[in-house]
Amino acid sequence: MKYTGIIPARYASSRFPGKPLVMIDGKSMIMRVYEQAIKVSGFDQVVVATDDEAIFNHVKKQGGKVMMTSSQHGSGTERCFEVAHNLGLVNEEQVVVNIQGDEPFIDPAQIERVMASFADASVEIATLAKKIDDLTELLSPNSVKVALGENGQAVYFSRHPVPFARGVDQPDWLQHHTYYKHVGLYAYKASVLKRLVGLSPSAIELAESLEQLRWLAHGFKISVELTDIESQAVDIPEDLLKFNPKV
């Protein structure tokens, strides 16, 4: 099995326009993600996928591999598929790893853990989750939760805590059940990725605004690996304060 890492990078983020090019301790966020990704053992190649010329030129100037993609994509999954298709990967025994472009200090071990899922030939899609230890995070709609089955596969993703702890006061939920935060790192067999981009939106996806629910609704299985590494994503400018004094 071969592995390709793809980092979708849009300029026109509604909450933080130009986010991939923001500088953190003298280096752009997109190049920090790229340099972490190329440390991963097992990648045949890592490609930044963007619809913006400024990002394209920046990555190319810094020596990174980058590809222009359509501005019409509705998700990083679609952007990844365009790159995989253009590279001729979709009909190969290939795994495509969708690496979030807004986690400048992502640990290569997290990516490698998701890639290791494909040692099991039955795995179609893999992702990552971390145990939740903080009640505020559990209750926040910005922190996506994932409920796991006994086989380590995702049962459901939600912005609400799942499952509901019946008969337990909400402040005590973490003492009565193990909850997991979804870490937005995906890997797909290239042949599966080709099928995912042809799916129509599902009702549960539209309700929660979570693309991965489309895959579950259409019968795809999502294997979930666990990590104890805390990821730090940048969604809004204030999130850069997490990296002080590096900003």
Arithmetic mean of pLDDT? 92
Domain count, please report it. 1
DSSP summary: helix tally: 9
CATH fourth-tier homologous superfamily: Spore Coat Polysaccharide Biosynthesis Protein SpsA, Chain A
Please describe the structure with a list of short key phrases separated by commas or semicolons.
single chain; 247 residues; alpha/beta; Spore Coat Polysaccharide Biosynthesis Protein SpsA, Chain A; 9-stranded mixed sheet
Could you characterize what this model shows?
By secondary structure, the protein is α/β, with parallel strands linked by helices. The protein has nine helices and eleven strands. Strands 1, 4, 5, 6, 7, 8, 9, 10 and 11 form a nine-stranded mixed beta sheet that branches. A two-stranded antiparallel ribbon has the order 2-3. It is globular. The mean pLDDT is about 90.
Topology:
Elements: E1 2-9, E2 23-24, E3 27-28, H1 29-37, E4 43-50, H2 53-61, E5 66-68, H3 76-86, E6 94-98, H4 108-116, E7 125-131, H5 135-139, E8 145-148, E9 154-158, H6 173-176, E10 180-189, H7 190-196, H8 203-208, H9 212-217, E11 222-227
Parallel strand pairs: 1-4, 1-6, 4-5, 7-11
Antiparallel strand pairs: 2-3, 6-10, 7-10, 8-9, 8-10
Compact overview of the structure:
The protein is an alpha/beta fold and 247 residues long. The protein has helices at residues 29-37, 53-61, 76-86, 108-116, 135-139, 173-176, 190-196, 203-208, 212-217; strands spanning 2-9, 23-24, 27-28, 43-50, 66-68, 94-98, 125-131, 145-148, 154-158, 180-189, 222-227. β8 (145-148) and β9 (154-158) form a beta hairpin.
